[in-house]
Structures are given as structure tokens and as C-alpha cells.
């Protein structure tokens, strides 16, 4: 193995998402084909885990209607050109879809110094125009449910372990 | 969050795989070798992105293996410094908060990178932030949080031979650390549990309706 170029490009989550869904469809089509067999197990594991991550609130990839298409990046760049944001900031805006100044603040460095309130609102409006707005209520509900479910699973598991220990004892 | 890395490598095709198309076998071999594994100073490899070059296959003497030199690009998880990501709190102790995503578990927020006024509650076993207005905000387990990447740490897991180990003076093999860990912060406004920051607008809107 020889590394030719440690970092030849940066990808947005949407690009990774499209690649992985295609990959998944391809590996599903292999099922039952004896000559091809299954895709490597470690690949199936990581693809499933990342897709789970992408579908989980508050990721825009899991929201409806689906906010991205093949022209989204172009449109976003065109709308945000006047604000002279860095590449890293654009990537994070693509991935996280901040729709409020408080959220934008974490992404844009020195935001208060670079943009006044009107400009901040203009950036947020431009993002909402291209990527749409999340359904805040549903998103929060999903996050709360996810947390509850995970906590329950954990306590169930602990209970089970205790039972097993009782039987052993 | 994700980057492309260009790598050159040798792929060996076993005779029993010759029924598949070459492109498919090469892809499978690369994925089997790299997917879900960490390369030092590169990141966590996800999967093959595209194949750039493949040489003619050459059969080695004595084995039936077809040797092919390939160049390809991999999708790699490697967040840049100061990138903001989301994940979930998996556990807390008095040193800080541990965060995980579905595919990556090794993210740690040390206590000094939490907002001022945060303390660890031994009764609840989680962190609490006492805000300036004396409200208590809880960092509950499994809560979805937003955090900013500050540092990355690499740990080479290459085993040390017995002779080298004796030189180091440690008798037993040292405990293996994770090959790639991230340190994050949740200090600034907008970071921390998403529910703290995302809820406000809605409430204001409701008040206005009531008026």
C-alpha cells in the first residue's frame, strides 16, 4: 500500500450519501447470485452504520422532503457568493443546514465581526431558500424519542444481564 | 467530514474468484482490505470511491494468483479542525463527556471544553451546566449534541516485538488504545444538546400567536 495523495478532495455528506445508497442497491442486487456471493462483511457494517447516521435527526438527509439534488451545491454557491465564505464553512452549511443565526454562529468563524445582523439574516434566508427548512417540531420529537429508546435499550440490557447472573448464581 | 484519499496497491485475485468480473473482484478486494479500518494519519476508511488505474493481470510462479497493480480513491472519515458535527452522548464521568456516532465511538469532550459553570453530578452521573441566570441544563445520556472538533490523536497499534519490549522496560504488552480518537469542545453558544438551541424560535412564535 502506498498513499499517493492523503487528501485529493473533500466530500459533502450528500455526495457520500448518494455513493453509499448506490453501493447498497448494488450489493442488494447480488443477493442470491451464487457466483458473486455477498459483498465483504466489514463493508456492509460500515455502510449501514453511516446510512443510519445520515437518516437520524437532525441530519437534513433524513428529513422530508429530501432537500438535495445534483444541482444543490451549485445553487448554494451562487446564492452565498457575495458573503465570501470559506470552503470549510460552505461544506458545513451543506451538511448541517443551519436555519437560525445561533446555529450559523458555530459554523462561521468570527461571525459577529464579519457580518452584521441583516447580513446574518440574509445568509440564513439564502440557506433556507436553497435547502429548505427543517420541520423543527418533528425533528425535536425524533431526537427525544431516539434518546429515550436508546436509554430503554440500555436499561433492558442491564436487567437481562442481572437475570443471567441470578440464574448463574 | 469525508475526504477522498488516493492510494496505490497490489490486488491479488484468487482463482475461485475468476468467475466474477475483474472490476467487481478488484472492488471487493479493496473494500475487504480497507472498509471500516483506520490508516494512521489518514482516517477511518469507508469504501472505494473510484478505480483510477489497473494494470494487466500477471500470474505469479507457483500460485495461481492474478496480480494487478491498482490506483484508486477511497472515501475516508476525517473531520477537519473546527468542523461542527452531531452525535450522541454515550457516557459521562468527572473527566468529561464521551460522544459517539453510529459509526465512530471515540469522541471525547474534556471538562475544560464544556461551558463555564458546568459541573459533574455524582448523583445523576452526568454533567450539568448552571447558566448565568441560574438555570440548570442537563447533558443527559443519549442526547443528540452538536460539537466542534479540536484535536485528533493517533495511536499506532503495530505490535512491539519481545526484544523491543524488554528494552522499553515493560514486561507485559501495553494496553492497546484506539488508533484514532477525536477531542471536541462544546463551549460556544450553539454547541451542546441540539434541543437547547433549536427550540427557542418555536416558543417565540407561539407567544406571538397568543398575543
UniProtKB/TrEMBL annotation, chain A:
Compartments in which it is found: Nucleus
Designated name of the protein: DNA-directed RNA polymerase III subunit RPC9
Biased composition, class Basic and acidic residues, residue ranges: 135-163
SMART domains membership: RPOL4c (SM00657)
Region (Disordered): 135-169
Provenance organism: Amorphotheca resinae ATCC 22711
Family as reported in the entry's similarity comment: Belongs to the eukaryotic RPC9 RNA polymerase subunit family.
Superkingdom of source: Eukaryota
GO biological process, one term: transcription initiation at RNA polymerase III promoter
Pfam families: RNA_pol_Rpb4
Automatic annotation (TrEMBL), chain B:
Family annotation (InterPro entries): NA-bd_OB-fold, RNA_pol_III_Rbc25, RNA_pol_Rpb7-like_N_sf, Rpb7-like, Rpb7-like_N
Gene3D superfamilies: Nucleic acid-binding proteins, RNA polymerase Rpb7-like, N-terminal domain
Pfam family, one: RNA_pol_Rbc25
Keyword presence, Amino-acid biosynthesis: no
CDD domains, A to Z: RNAP_III_Rpc25_N
Superkingdom assignment: Eukaryota
Domain RNA polymerase III subunit Rpc25, chain residue ranges per copy: 83-197
UniProt domain RNA polymerase Rpb7-like N-terminal: residue ranges: 9-64
Gene Ontology CC annotation, any one: RNA polymerase III complex
Localization (cell): Nucleus
Main location: nucleus
An example Gene Ontology biological process: transcription initiation at RNA polymerase III promoter
Keywords, ordered alphabetically: DNA-directed RNA polymerase, Nucleus, Transcription
Similarity comment text for this entry: Belongs to the eukaryotic RPB7/RPC8 RNA polymerase subunit family.
Job of this protein: DNA-dependent RNA polymerase which catalyzes the transcription of DNA into RNA using the four ribonucleoside triphosphates as substrates.
Protein name in UniProt: DNA-directed RNA polymerase subunit
Biological source species: Amorphotheca resinae ATCC 22711
Taxon lineage: Eukaryota, Fungi, Dikarya, Ascomycota, Pezizomycotina
Amino acid at each position: 500500500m502506498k498513499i499517493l495523495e492523503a487528501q485529493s478532495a473533500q466530500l459533502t455528506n450528500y455526495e457520500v450519501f448518494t455513493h453509499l445508497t448506490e453501493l447498497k442497491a448494488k450489493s442488494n442486487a447480488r443477493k442470491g447470485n451464487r457466483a458473486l456471493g455477498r459483498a465483504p462483511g466489514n463493508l456492509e457494517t460500515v455502510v449501514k452504520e453511516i446510512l443510519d447516521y445520515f437518516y437520524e435527526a437532525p441530519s437534513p438527509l433524513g428529513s422530508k422532503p429530501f432537500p438535495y439534488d445534483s444541482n444543490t451545491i451549485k445553487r448554494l454557491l451562487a446564492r452565498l457568493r457575495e458573503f465570501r465564505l470559506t470552503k470549510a464553512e460552505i461544506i458545513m452549511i451543506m451538511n448541517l443546514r443551519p436555519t437560525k443565526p445561533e446555529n450559523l454562529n458555530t459554523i462561521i468563524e468570527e461571525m459577529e465581526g464579519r457580518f452584521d445582523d441583516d447580513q446574518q439574516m440574509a445568509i440564513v434566508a439564502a440557506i433556507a431558500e436553497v435547502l429548505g427548512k427543517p420541520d423543527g417540531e418533528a425533528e425535536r420529537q425524533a431526537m427525544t424519542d431516539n434518546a429515550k429508546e436508546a436509554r430503554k435499550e440500555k436499561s433492558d440490557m442491564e436487567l437481562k444481564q442481572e437475570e443471567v447472573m441470578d440464574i448463574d448464581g | 467530514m469525508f475526504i477522498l484519499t488516493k492510494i496505490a496497491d497490489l490486488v491479488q485475485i484468487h482463482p475461485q474468484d475468476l468467475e466474477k468480473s475483474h472490476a467487481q473482484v478488484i472492488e471487493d478486494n479493496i473494500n475487504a482490505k480497507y472498509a471500516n479500518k483506520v490508516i494512521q494519519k489518514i482516517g477511518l476508511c469507508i469504501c472505494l470511491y473510484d478505480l483510477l488505474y489497473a494494470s494487466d493481470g500477471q500470474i505469479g510462479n507457483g500460485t495461481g494468483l492474478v496480480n494487478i497493480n491498482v490506483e484508486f480513491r477511497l472515501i475516508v472519515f476525517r473531520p477537519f479542525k473546527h468542523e461542527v458535527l452531531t452525535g450522541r452522548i454515550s457516557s459521562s464521568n468527572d473527566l468529561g463527556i464521551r460522544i459517539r456516532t453510529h459509526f465512530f465511538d471515540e469522541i471525547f469532550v474534556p471538562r475544560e471544553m464544556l461551558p463555564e459553570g458546568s459541573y459533574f453530578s455524582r448523583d445523576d452521573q452526568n454533567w450539568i451546566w448552571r447558566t448565568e441566570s441560574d438555570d440548570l441544563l442537563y447533558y443527559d445520556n443519549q442526547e443528540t449534541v452538536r460539537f466542534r472538533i479540536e484535536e485528533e490523536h493517533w495511536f499506532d497499534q503495530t505490535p512491539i516485538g519481545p526484544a523491543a519490549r524488554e528494552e522499553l522496560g515493560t514486561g507485559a504488552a501495553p494496553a492497546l488504545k484506539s488508533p484514532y480518537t477525536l477531542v471536541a469542545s462544546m463551549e460556544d453558544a450553539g454547541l451542546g444538546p441540539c434541543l437547547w438551541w433549536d427550540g427557542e424560535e418555536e416558543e417565540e412564535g407561539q407567544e406571538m400567536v397568543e398575543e
